[in-house]
Amino acid sequence: MRKLILLGLTQALLLLSGCGGSGTVVGSAASTGKGSGTGSGGGQTSNVVVMTVDAGPDVTATSGYDVDTPFITVTVCAPASTTNCQTIDHVEVDTGSYGLRIISSVLTPSLASALHQELATGGNPLVECTQFIDGFSWGPVKTADVQIAGELASNVPMQVIGDPSFQNEIPTACSGTGPEEDTVAEFHANGILGIGPFGDDCGGGCASTAANTFYYTCPANGTGTGSCGGVAVSEPEQVTNPVVSFQTDNNGVIVQLPAIPDPGGAPTATGSLTFGIGTEGNNGLGSATVLTSNPSTGDITTTYNGTPLAYSYFDTGSNAFYFDDNSIPTCPSSGSGTSSSTWFCPTTELSLSATNTGRNGMVSTVHFQIANANMLFSTYQGNTALADLGASAGDESGYCPNSATDCSFDFGLPFFFGRNVYVAIAGANTEGGPGPYFAY
Amino acid sequence: MKVFSSTLSAALASGALLLACGSMVPAKAALGDKIASVQTDQASMKGQLRTRSGTGYSVQEITTASGTLVREYVSPAGVVFAVSWSGPAMPNLQQTLGTYFVQYTASVRSQLTARGMHPGHNHVEVHSPSLIVHAGGHMRQYFGLAYVPSLIPQNLSISDLH
User: Fold this and answer.
1) B119 interface with A at CB cutoff 8 Å
2) ipTM attached to this prediction
3) pTM of the model
4) Are residues A79 and A169 in the same domain?
5) CB pairs under 8 A between A and B
6) Domain range for residue A353?
């Protein structure tokens, strides 16, 4: 168990705010991160945590491995405790979600029992059906003290995924959204830290209607799909992006990864996640271009091959560039178990570009490469950091709102190699204006 | 969001079957099902359902209580050959994909546990002769399209849908 050194933290924060910053200055794409250690201990500044792209926590001889998935280590404590704490590695960093979620089986029994259960209106436990695109994660909302590097979020609502007390009463409105991902093996991480551009995971929709499909009130140890009922939850009580609960450095984050070899990538990659934008000596915007986002979705507009795509995003939770371009061949089915994938398999590596526009009218052109995915997976098998991985999102016109064309370009983790990407939280003030925005 | 009270009074006034508003999507055709008739569905879901015509197909658009727009693409023969969704929550895919839900979840699960690299949380691709699914997005904005290739009307392409 790990002690929080609160006095040392205060001193460290005072030192940092007074000086020009220690360690590598964020803003250089060539910076190599804050050290190669896996712990959140020495060798790094208080608002920076080491972030590693690797195979994930559950690799066995017969399992698959994670590609282009970044992880950090977090410390979770019972509220107001400095002794009942647990340091948890391989927590996925996701700009496409908001809030901290930990798989129940990862928690020690003493910590699990000491987290504070949030209650819904009516007095029963608050339980969430977190919806990812590939499935759902079900579990109670509990409050905890969360420490990441030197930053502390006190009494922050988080989710405990797969808590046994609620596993026998998953409502059909939840299980109907897709496969269940409530174990480390299903989730491919010990947990996930959503640090996208919003402070809570659902927003006004979950505050205004009980039929939001995310939040439920459930009796502990209930059984049957009818035990739980949908419930509205105020935004402060929803699962919260811990960054907004930090005392300082709470207006956004910076995701930094080093450049890696083209096309083969690297076995692993080490970068950093920095808290705060323009709040310390090491997190200024510098020459980054600010692209303000859709205030409801966080999306910006990407123009690709002349088509404006208004629901585009920078997502560390996606492991490739996902977009629609039927001039790029997709890989033929292989025997590797990925026959349903749509990886791009151009005959030679493609150099492409896209132009991103914020609601503020700022424009930035991005150049990127797409390599043959089958070549990457065979010649560079085992490399978990791949910068040139792309996949077809298929024709999007069938689902795009108000559009007869495509509408979305997903810049997944490959975009982040060799860049510092700033994510500003909705409503937070920064030196680049208020969030939500992305900048790079 | 539709105003619940006007939906209620309109449905009662028309004598149509009242279907519950809420996270339960009202009884309607799922992917692959034949709808009884567009006019029947439209009357029974008055205020909640919009029907419009494309070239060679019609679309039933339903906004769920969670604010997500679900579209059912219906062939001239009255068969739902494609469904799509866009909005702040996933739809109930068990209801929307109907008999194809089992195949969908099995395919996604097999990809999660396959040898080789895992797909991430924010995309799904299912490509089989009987079912194609593209889904993506992130919290606050989810998208997806599912269709049965053999049910697409002649002379129509998926890229024609909107």
Assistant:
1) yes
2) 0.86
3) 0.86
4) yes
5) 239
6) 285-439
